Fold:
Amino acid sequence: MLNQRRFIVGAVLIAAAVSYLVYAGIRSTSMYYFDMDQFLAQRAAHAGEDLRVKGWVRAGSIVWDARTNALAFDLARQDGSAPVPVSYHGVLPDMFAAGREVVVEGRWADGSLAARQIMTSCPSKYEPAKAGS
Amino acid sequence: MPALGRLAVCLALLCATFSVGASVAGAGWRRRDLVAAGAHAAYAVFALVAVAVAILLRALLTHDFSLEYVAAYSSSTLPVQYTVAALWGGQKGSLLFWVFVLSLFTTLVQLQNRERNRELMPWVTATLMVIAVFFLALVTFVTDPFELLAAPAREGQDLNPLLQNYWMMIHPPSLYTGYVSASVPFAFAIAALATGRLDDQWIRTTRRWALFSWFFLSLGNLFGARWAYEVLGWGGYWAWDPVENAAFMPWLVSTAYLHSVMIQEKRDLLRVWNMVLVLLTFTLTIFGTFLTRSGVISSVHSFTQSGLGPFFIGFLVAVILVAGGLVAWRLPELRTRGTIESFLSREAAFLFNNLILVGIAFAVFWGTVFPVLSEWVRGVKITVGPPFFNRVNAPLGIVLLFLVGVGPVIAWRRATPRNLRRAFAGPVGAGLAAAVLLRLAGVPLGWAHATFALGVFVLGTVVQEFWRGVRARQAMLHEPASRALARLVGKNRRRYGGYVIHVGVVAIFVGVAASSAFRVEAQQTLAPGQEMQAGRFTLRFERTESSEDAHVARLAAVVSVREHGRQIATLAPEKRLYKKPQQPTTEVALRSRLTEDLYLVLGSYDPKSGLVTLLAYVNPLVSWIWIGGAILALGTAVAMWPSALERRERAWAPGRVGVPAK
Structure:
């Protein structure tokens, strides 16, 4: 029985180590994921933090400089309201286009979102997006 | 024809339901005629689903765009191999394909066990057919692949261009095979719990199925990684996306089971644990299917809401309740009296490897569902990305790799100091020497350095095992080395096949560690004739070339690559514009060598100025991941091949005794 108890202690130690790694990992790497309305309401409180914001690329707002790979556009609600300027340096994702839904990862500072990454969703593998939706 | 397909699916649903009822009733009332009827109904399910699949395949190949599915996932210009792949390219087809594989395996299991496992088989059939009923009901009532369009389309919308890739043809079938074959050990576990036949019989019967499932899960994951590497164009192969995690979690638990089951066979320990692992593996395959289809968790693949989520949740809850309830009911009989005697024993090493594997699965699970949980609990979505998974899994992976070396060579029960010296002096010495040499060669201390050194340690244990086995045979039987090696492996296939798999695992670990730690990235905007540097490669953008066919328009940037002033390759990364879903895609140019891959992406092209932006990645040792996969496949083949001993065992299988000849 003594052995049994030692093994339970060993197993608990491993479980504790895994839990700690998960806990510390989440603490140090997690990011808020806001939709446009949540972002508009809470951006002041989270200025300078890494965030993810889901919104739509406002039609007519894309400015792209092929020479410097600088991109600027407005992230907005689906109807184009409440635009937030986004700046980004890097290669455009294939699926990036006006009107598309995108997730911007970056920081909110000085009235604009400095994007580190722009994630576009590919048309789903399982259910093709119906036209107009 | 589509009506016939739909009819076949409906009949299959009826047969499967009947099979469940007849099998359970037959088992309960001990009526062999009912059990036989249940089994025959299961054969009928296979035949009917095969007919349905054939009809859908025919509709795809003949471009019958009156079918919604055919119009949505193929076109008349789609190459024939991708037209076949469209069978599992969409939700509806993939669910039908799933039932097809399931009913095929049910048939195989029944043929294998015609005169064996009399008591277990009705429950096995019933369990497998319950799963079939669930999927067939989805295909019949929720996502009908034979749905007709109001007016036939003139042309199909084509398969998503990202899926038009060789690896995407074989990745889903491999993964489905792995997922679905996990239901066989699950069904036997349920049968053992239901009948109370909790001895090793069900484990021995499903040993090969568990390995088979694990093997296809491994392949499925590797093919998926390879696809991501070639197609997605971000320079990596694994992004900890929920869809990837969905396939990785059952693999982890299945790996744990394959190891801990040896403890049960050898020492009759861990019976509850093994039971739980088998049940958990299956549950995770259903959870994975749920994740990829429900849209509950947003992924890069962004599966839209398909309305299937609640059905899967319901099924998942039912599976967990039934399986958990059965285990709780049989718990007193499942308990074993033996104990593990010492930390320094093979049992302990395997137990710890199990805890680590399940721990990794838990961490991956937690990271995957965290956004949903945080939204439920706190009302705001909090996401974790690749940094979370890498941070948590790097230390766990290192401990796991260490145990890969320890497990196979440490003594059973209790290792003596003499045993430890004999087993570990050589491999530990080799690992330490490698650590020092790598450090002197300039490899910085860190996870990658530790992985390389531990990899050498594991290889040391494997080489030592082969060497000692061959030497022992030579000394006792005076065989030449080559024959000694062949016989040694032939007579202990599982053991030495396992060692070969470990070599493959080391290769994968090394490839992953090197390519994550020492990857070089460069990005530059170039005019024709300009150059950029990526690691030790000089890349010169020569010109663009364009071409076009009915299916796709291509624009390639021709780049010549120099190393130390010498021209070594010309690469042409492309942008493609697929015509039917008007979608641009990136075609990576790859120069793959054993030492490193040069991975080139055409980031953007500006027609006005003629400028291109090139992205270059130098990924060291990444090929070893795929080579490791091939070694792993070889090792699995060795381990699965029936040995002479097993063939004799089979001839004397308990079920056969006393069965009157037909």
